[in-house]
Design brief:
Radius of gyration: 16 Å
Strand content: 15-25%
Shape: globular
CATH topology: Beta Polymerase, domain 2
Strand order of the largest sheet: 1-2-5-4-3
Order of helices and strands: HEHEHEEEEEHHH
CATH class: Alpha Beta
Distance between the termini: 36 Å
Helix content: 25-40%
Number of helices: 6
Length: 169
């Protein structure tokens, strides 16, 4: 998928669990948690080009449950799909901040990935159980710590502090 987008000249950054795994692997390969789906941050205006490129590579485009996804096969599962996340947009109306811009990303070993700061902000903004698990992973290996509290908005700082104070809570 990443090579296909790169070949088509479409900007992207891997986000979500695979971005967490990429960052965790820089410190402790054994601490990497597997995830079935791939979240990819893109620009909405690139969607027609993304559809052309990924369908040309054999993926199957679907818009399901307010998500744009690419399946490995027509009968594929959205749980195993590539999920598009749109830069600069709010995922849910109740969230405090939109997704970051693609400029807040960097080259990883195998693909372009969100910067650690942008990834932490997304995870703290969504703050679902799986997001808290991912944040605990990066806290546990020391990628982030209490020094990050001053980098964040008060709301996100409060969420991070709660995880630092009580990782299992």
């Amino acid at each position: 998928m990443a090579r296909t987008l790169e070949s088509a000249g479409i900007p992207y950054a891997v986000a979500g669990g695979n971005a967490v795994a990429a960052w965790v692997s820089t410190v402790d390969e054994a601490a990497v948690r597997n995830t079935r789906d791939v979240d990819v941050l893109v620009r909405r205006e690139d969607l027609p080009r993304i559809i052309d490129a990924l369908e040309g590579a054999g993926f199957v485009y679907r818009h399901v449950a307010r998500m744009d996804v690419f399946l490995d096969a027509p009968d594929g599962s959205a749980r195993d799909a590539v999920h598009l996340v749109f830069a600069g947009e709010m995922v849910n109306a109740n969230e405090s901040a939109p997704n970051p811009d693609l400029s807040d990303s960097e080259e990883g070993d195998r693909f372009r990935v969100l910067s650690l700061g942008a990834l932490v902000a997304i995870k703290l903004t969504a703050f679902r159980d799986k997001d808290r698990t991912h944040l605990r992973d990066v806290l546990e290996i020391g990628l982030i710590d209490s020094s990050w509290l001053d980098r964040l908005s008060p709301e996100l700082g409060k969420r991070l502090k709660a995880l630092i104070d009580d990782p299992n809570g």
